[in-house]
From TrEMBL:
<feature type="domain" description="HTH deoR-type">
    <location>
        <begin position="3"/>
        <end position="58"/>
    </location>
</feature>
<keyword id="KW-0804">Transcription</keyword>
<dbReference type="Pfam" id="PF08220">
    <property type="entry name" value="HTH_DeoR"/>
</dbReference>
<dbReference type="Pfam" id="PF00455">
    <property type="entry name" value="DeoRC"/>
</dbReference>
<dbReference type="InterPro" id="IPR001034">
    <property type="entry name" value="DeoR_HTH"/>
</dbReference>
<dbReference type="InterPro" id="IPR036388">
    <property type="entry name" value="WH-like_DNA-bd_sf"/>
</dbReference>
<dbReference type="GO" id="GO:0003700">
    <property type="term" value="F:DNA-binding transcription factor activity"/>
</dbReference>
<dbReference type="InterPro" id="IPR037171">
    <property type="entry name" value="NagB/RpiA_transferase-like"/>
</dbReference>
<keyword id="KW-0805">Transcription regulation</keyword>
<dbReference type="InterPro" id="IPR050313">
    <property type="entry name" value="Carb_Metab_HTH_regulators"/>
</dbReference>
<dbReference type="InterPro" id="IPR014036">
    <property type="entry name" value="DeoR-like_C"/>
</dbReference>
<protein>
    <submittedName>
        <fullName>DeoR/GlpR transcriptional regulator</fullName>
    </submittedName>
</protein>
<dbReference type="InterPro" id="IPR036390">
    <property type="entry name" value="WH_DNA-bd_sf"/>
</dbReference>
Length: 251
């Protein structure tokens, strides 16, 4: 296969799954990982894809939903580091809301050994993970979202979430712009996360560096509405205006 054909195949694959790892692309195209990396670098220089740790996505993908199976592998080392730090904020007896983000899933992995907390989640994957632990776990119930099959949404989920007063809402979204606006691409998920944030004493945003400098379709909130932001990036340096009430932790 010629290099130009490979690049078109890479773009075609990314148009279907939005994000793919280098390993996935190499296996699908039956070529070496080093060749894939060279192709991705050239496509990135032309503004067609955005490189990230271990893979790439289309440059306009911030407005498109990425399946959990792909999100779980994107920046996974960074997400695990953030999850490890997030777990240190959780005290004995705390009630924790976890959304359907891959970052929240990695946090759930860290919480699996805790027997002294309660988790309420909208994530089917987090429910399955915690079902194998001693963590007291509640499902938010609700409607299985058609676009995001791992997220429970709708009025039923909203009503169940409102029955709890949580100590923490730990979540992530797709985008953070320099003005401090958090946004995402699936409206039902935005709505149910708003309820979780409303019913929590404190909120924690897990923000890996791939989310910076972009905007998605639906506004979630402003960074000044949050209590803690964990990131591998220097978020205060990225923001045009720094809210004084937010604790920024770089991992």
């Amino acid at each position: 296969m010629y290099q130009s054909e490979r690049k078109q195949e890479i773009l075609s694959i990314l148009s279907e799954c939005t994000y793919a790892t280098v390993e996935d692309l190499a296996n699908k195209l039956h070529i070496s990982a080093s060749s894939i990396r060279r192709d991705l670098s050239e496509l990135a220089s032309r503004g067609l894809v955005v490189r990230s740790y271990g893979g790439a996505e289309l440059s306009n993908s911030q407005k498109r939903f990425v399946p959990f199976s792909a999100r779980r592998h994107k920046n996974s080392a960074v997400k695990r580091a953030m999850a490890e730090t997030a777990e240190t904020f959780i005290k004995s007896g705390d009630v924790v809301f976890l959304d359907d983000s891959s970052s929240a899933y990695f946090t759930a992995e860290k919480l699996c050994t805790r027997k002294d907390i309660t988790v309420v989640t909208t994530s089917v994957d987090v429910l399955f993970l915690l079902s194998q632990s001693d963590v007291t776990t509640y499902s938010a119930g609700g409607l299985l979202n058609r676009e995001n099959r791992t997220c429970l949404t709708g009025s039923f989920a909203d009503s169940i979430i409102r029955k709890f007063h949580a100590d923490w809402c730990i979540f992530s979204v797709k985008s953070l712009d320099a003005g401090g606006v958090l946004s995402d691409c699936v409206e039902p998920g935005v709505a149910v996360l708003n309820t979780m944030m409303e019913c929590a004493e404190k909120t924690m945003f897990l923000c890996d560096s791939s989310k910076l400098g972009s905007r998605s379709t639906f506004v979630q909130c402003n960074i000044s509405d949050l209590d803690v932001v964990l990131s591998n990036a220097d978020i205060p340096a990225f923001l045009t205006s720094l809210p004084e009430n937010v604790q920024f932790v770089q991992v």
